[in-house]
Amino acid sequence: xxxEFESLIGYLYxxxxxxxxTAPPGTLCEAAPARAARGREADTFFVMVSPxxxxxxxxxxxxxxxxxxxxxxxxxSGSVTAGLRDLFAVVNRHLYDYNQKNPQKxxxxxxxxxxxxxxxLIIARCGANVAMLRSDGQxxxxxxxxxxxxxxxxxxxxxxxxxxxxxxxxxxxxxTRVAFGDANLAAMTAPRIDNALVxxxxxxxxVSLKELAKLQLAVMVAEFVPxxxxxxxxxxxxxxxxxxxxxxxxTATTPAVSRPREKRPSVFSVLWRHGQRALGRLLLQFGKxxxxxxxxxNRYFGPxxxxxxxxxxxxxxxGTVVMLPVFVVAMVMALWLSGTEESEFEICLQELNSRYxxxxxxxxxxxxxxxxxxxxxxxxxxxxxxxxxxxxxQQVSAIRAEGQQVTDRLQDITRxxxxxxxxxPAASLTxxxxxxxxxxxxxxxxxxxxxxxxxxxxxxxxxxxYPIPEMRRGASxxxxxxxxxxxxxxxxNTDRIVALADxxxxxxxxxxxxxxxxxxxxxVEQWRRPMAFTIWTNGxxxxxxxxxxxxxxxxxxxxxxxxTGSTPTEYFSGPARPTLQNPIDIQIDGGGNIYxxxxxxxxxxxxxxxxxxxxxxxxxxxxxxNAAQTFFLDDTVTAQSIYVVSRNTRTIFExxxxxNFRASYRPPDESLFELVSAVAVVADQNRREILYVAxxxxxxxxxxxx
Length: 706
Fold this sequence. Notes:
Elements: E1 6-15, E2 18-19, E3 27-31, E4 44-52, H1 59-75, H2 80-101, E5 108-117, E6 120-126, E7 130-135, E8 138-142, H3 149-152, E9 166-171, E10 177-181, H4 183-186, H5 190-197, H6 202-212, E11 217-225, E12 238-240, E13 246-247, H7 267-301, H8 315-338, H9 340-359, H10 362-365, H11 369-389, H12 394-411, E14 413-415, E15 418-423, E16 429-435, E17 438-443, E18 448-454, E19 461-472, E20 485-491, E21 496-501, E22 505-510, E23 516-520, E24 530-535, E25 541-545, E26 552-556, E27 569-570, E28 583-588, E29 594-598, E30 603-607, E31 610-612, E32 631-634, E33 641-646, E34 651-656, E35 661-666, E36 676-683, E37 689-695, E38 698-703
Parallel strand pairs: 14-35
Antiparallel strand pairs: 1-2, 1-11, 1-12, 3-4, 3-13, 4-5, 5-6, 6-9, 7-8, 7-10, 10-11, 15-38, 16-17, 17-18, 18-19, 20-21, 21-22, 22-23, 24-25, 25-26, 26-27, 28-29, 29-30, 30-31, 32-33, 33-34, 34-35, 36-37, 37-38
Helix pairs in contact: 1-2, 5-6, 7-8, 9-11, 11-12
């Protein structure tokens, strides 16, 4: 379905009287993603989430709320107003539940959302965020009277069980402009804002609003034009939603410049030229050596008086004459070989500088994204060659860092510094569970589960690693013989770490290991290739079986604190059951939605055994999720994320709960992720998000940027 209007977007963010050149946290404009619910295909969604109350959360808190709102709207069905009411209810419920559990640190938020469908703009607000719309020479404020505090400052999200939502519908046409802002926008006089909105273009609108701003202001301005209209060239911070899907990011493009490409010497010509020079210098040295030999031969073998005894006739003289040339030649070869590395490095460095200059030239910097990536890839290949010849060279390291920075920016790759938490000799870690100040790691190579106690900041280990005796292959907890451990999981219902072996032996241990208990699951004979399991909030265990009738999930309900009396039931049944191709991991969210990951990186979502529309979208062109090891689901109110571990790209991908791309994380030294296999994410006491990553035999910590 075609878009009737294209939305041009501009942002203004003023903090402490100073303009911040970025979009305000919590602002978002998104066109319908490829997998939007039926009826949402041509909608454009706007949202602004702002702090409210006495306590302000980190910036990414409001960004996550805006993303949650967009994801919820495009995943919902029904009318626009029904979708808006639903997303406000979901966001409010998350905030309200969070505040009930954290009375010492409560967060409130004001939110205004709008949906553009055809020529209709439906606006919903809760809290103190406002909007002003300018169309056909008429101006409308939302709410209608900004001087009425009761209407302006309605109860924000997170303070009541039910959100206080106010809906407004407007008509738009070509040239309509609307400003969404926080309460600071309402503090300005409406006529002045109106004068700003009628400026010649969005850039001038933003400049005019900046002049009106005092200490604080967050504004998102939208202008609606037909999709065929050209984008004004002087809108510095703007984006277009015409014919696009997925989350929009601000982009700055430079027009390509067509210039003749400079002819550069090939690597073979460079090597041949330097080789000729080296050979000439070597032959010159040999000429000098043979000149010395000539003088020696003339002295000792030339004509002499018959009475004079030749020194050469003695053994010492003969040995000197024979060994001296051998010694000289050996010294020359040794000196030549010792200088080979330096000469080879110099040749490599010259070629590297040639490639580097090309990559930074205007003809490349102003070209298309793909050509820039290819050219810098050409540079990075030579960087590795030169780095191998002289490790630690500062010039090579500087070029490597610049190339990585350029390519990361173009490919939406985020580099996070890594901290080693713990290395376990001869281990192969395949799963991490984080609970409180404890990490639990499964070593599949040795069939052992370890406990790692973290330091107060979560970035270190207090006392190394502790192997849990009951969770070990070949152990006999409770008189049962433990087989190969399939997987480990955390049970929120019992607050225990759970390990399951392939022979059905299940061990549950309290997080502090005050005691462990063991039981045997029923129906083990029905298993074919058990891969992983997870436990829901009500205690039900879901076991992923990769080969049971083209993939199956066995369900074990918790009864009386144990699974012993449970008879496993098939989660999928009937003619509509899905076919799971090589499933490898399973997760479940608080709402009972089951997510199944396959080896090719595909994830399917199921509710009540019925497949739900889900797919990964909005990934950068240069990044593809085509292989995976494990994944981690974080459905807390401040996260709402899925993290997928991809070893072949040495990357951890983060998406929203409906699959929209958010970020991809790699360490500065990608060799650390050569065997990356698992991830767990927690928020520490300072509300920083920490990624705990298992790669090979080591657990790393990576702190996400705010």
